[in-house]
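Summary for the lay section of the report: proteins are chains of building blocks that fold into shapes. Here we show the chain for Shikimate dehydrogenase and then a coded description of the shape we predicted for it.
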Amino acid sequence: MIDILRRRFGLLGRNISYSFSKGYFTEKFSDEVFAGNSYENFDISEINYFTELVKNNPDLRGLNVTIPYKEQVIPFLDKLSKKAALIGAVNTIKFTKNGKLKGYNTDYYGFKKSLEPLLEPHHKKALILGTGGASKGVAFALDELGIPYTFVSREAKENIIDYNLINATTFDNFKIIINCTPVGTSPNIEACPDLPYEFFTEKHIAYDLIYNPAETQFLKNAKERGAVIKNGYDMLIFQAEKAWKIWNK
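The coded shape description reads as follows.
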């Protein structure tokens, strides 16, 4: 085994003991082809600890980034990929050979690749629930797919509607509903975004970025009305493999 493969990777976030990434990469690295690679969680209470983390771990070669640091980490990086700069959120960091930190976004790629097989001609517009870092990658993917979208948040702002405005007409116009909020994540599995679920139909796609539980209350409610449902597991697989390619290029 050549030394270049003996490297450390990890996940940056807060309260991430549940994380998909650690389990996924630990299993990946159990294959003798990847012997010498390791993956661990870096759970920090605030982003200002990031500088110390990097300083104390000089053998790190790459990081994934999750909630709540996808946007907050950007000022600590030396450069961004073109797409990460356009999106305004980073979920992958590469430690370059000259010691620089470069941010990428693979969320948009994972979401796009997992949504595309579900699309039908009547899926013309999307509602994005939430306005955090994850929603930015989703919006970028929808732009690439040529699907107009509207953001939904608890408070209406410019180009953002609040949940109180969602009604039957909204569901007639928007056949893709994407939950980019953490509402419904384990252990709070009975929670769900505040929507009039009775207006879901078999013409709708309900997509939840959450993967634990596999079927959130949001997805269950939409499924009961005949909607096509999709959780975030495949998106995570696609974005993780894209990150692995970035770390190795």
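Put simply, here is one thing we learned. The CA atoms of residues 108 and 138 lie 5 Å apart.
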